[in-house]
Amino acid sequence: MKFLAGSEKRFFEFVSGLNDKDKIALICHNDLDGVASAIVVSEVIGNIEHLDFIEYSSDMTEKLAVEVKKRKINKIIFCDISIKEDIKKIEELKQVTDIVVLDHHRFEKDLNSDKIVYIKTETNSPACYLCYYLFSKIANIKNKELIVALGIVSEISYYQNKEFVDSVAEKYDMKMSEDINESEIWNITQDITLALIYLSGKTKQAYDILADFSLDKLGEIKKYSSQVYDEIERIKEDFNKNREVYSWGYYYKFSSRFAVKSMIITGLSMTEKESVFVFAFLKNNRMSISFRNQNRKTDCYKLALESVKGLEDTSAGGHIPAAGAEIKAEDELKFKENLIRVLGK
User: Fold this and answer.
1) Domain stop point among 190, 223, 256
2) What is the pLDDT of residue 56?
3) Are residues 250 and 208 in the same domain?
4) Contact 77/26 with Cβ under 8 angstroms?
5) What is d(CA 25, CA 93) in angstroms, rounded to the nearest whole number?
């Protein structure tokens, strides 16, 4: 596995220095990659004082600072979290804690220091696979390879990690196809992703279900996923009626009781890989925005950064084929002007 920042040596020095007196916080993204990362880390570390799953926002580490003080946390492990928007807060946290970041999002600054172990992989090496790669050198965690393979597929990184995923699929007798979207492992990944959406705000409940995940648990997963599926079909129908069409692709604004934006835009973008899809999810006074371009000719990461230029109270980040941003709802017009400035009409 290729590291773009950090080293295995520093990571293993951190882990070998842990003891029973340490109070560890494990903070992960609230998607399947993040949950799978937490499952792997917890399996080996064991003693987790504070576990939380968070969504990207401009103030996503604010609550953590409170927990650090209240619980006297002295070690923090971030998984699948791009923390570039919160560098100032991280600088504050490192004054009272040691920090490890295990992530695959693009970054601008190497944060490695005597208090921070900052490991970044290429974007097509998801955080859960990075965690598995590192922690499998410490303990036998073969029992977690299924959830890791599902996490890899959820990040649209199957083809870059085909050997590992195929070996897991064979072990669990899952039927594979040349097109991953037609494979059994894809369908299982979709069900889990939908269940996570249904349990939004209750990710720890999903974590408990998935911690010892086996294919026998699919029935329990589908109790949640089936309820989200109907909402997705409604939104797809609305997308076809109310989308804004441009030379480069589509812009679509919507709201829903479920956080299905990422799921829908990823699915639709796989059907038109040459098009750029921009979805804006409206909730209260904020807009959460997703960008997708599956043929990678448009760099969604750079597009996200450019689209929030000149706006206040924003966040943006991601990868070439998939990125996200958050803005104030009142700034939608300026956001769209930036979008058109970059992509054209």
Assistant:
1) 223
2) 72
3) no
4) yes
5) 12
Contacts of 45 (CB under 8 A, 6+ apart): 15, 18, 24, 26, 77
CA distance 269 to 275: 7
Instruction: Look at residue 141 in the predicted model and tell me its pLDDT.
Output: 97
Tally of domains within the chain? 2
Q: What single-letter amino acid sits at 339?
A: L
In this structure, the answer to whether residues 159 and 302 fall within a common structural domain is no
Rounded CA separation 14/75 (Å): 10
Whether residues 178 and 248 fall in one domain: no
Kindly report the pTM of this predicted structure: 0.80
Q: Which residues of the chain fall below pLDDT 50?
A: none
Give the angle subtended at the CA of 308 by the CAs of 302 and 310, to the nearest 5°: 120
- Residues 26, 152, single domain; the answer is yes
**Residue 99 near residue 87, CB atoms below 8 Å:** no
The total of other beta-carbon atoms located within 10 Å of residue 228's CB is: 24
Q: Report how many helices (DSSP H) and strands (DSSP E) the chain contains, helices first.
A: 13, 12
Query: Domain residues for 113?
Result: 3-223
